[in-house]
Amino acid sequence: MPLFGNTFSPKKTPPRKSASLSNLHNLDRSTREVELGLDYGTPTMNLAGQSLKFENGQWIAETGISEDVDRREAQRLRRRNQQLEEENNLLRLKVDILLDMLSETTAESHLMEKELEELKSISHRRK
């Protein structure tokens, strides 16, 4: 018999509450919107001073004075991105060429070491 009584005696769980008696889940979407006021309109947000709205699955900048500025900024960023991609491709090409040169030099070095070892062994045999 345990010293402090039964060591494992879980409490009984309370019975579950009955399901909702509301019939709102049976209503179609338009009726629910009218009844509950769920017509929110298009989502909008303000990010860094730029107002954006969500339409047809994409965030679109709302028209205004900054639209022309945004268009110029986007073009500038596209040009800069293109320049960086070209520079990156050139650098990758240079790295590939340098790795080929390193491989060729290493192979030549190993061949020369091998020839040197052979010449040393031949000179030792003659003595």
Automatic annotation (TrEMBL):
Pfam families reported for this sequence: Chibby (PF14645)
Record GO biological process: negative regulation of Wnt signaling pathway
Alphabetical UniProt keywords: Coiled coil
Cytoplasm among keywords: no
Top-rank taxon: Eukaryota
Parts forming coiled coils: 67-122
Keyword match Coiled coil: yes
Gene Ontology CC annotations of this record: nucleus
Organism, scientific name: Canis lupus dingo
Annotated region described as Disordered, given as residue ranges: 1-26
Comp. bias intervals (Polar residues): 1-10
Listed name of the protein: Chibby 1, beta catenin antagonist
Database matches in InterPro entries: Chibby_fam (IPR028118)
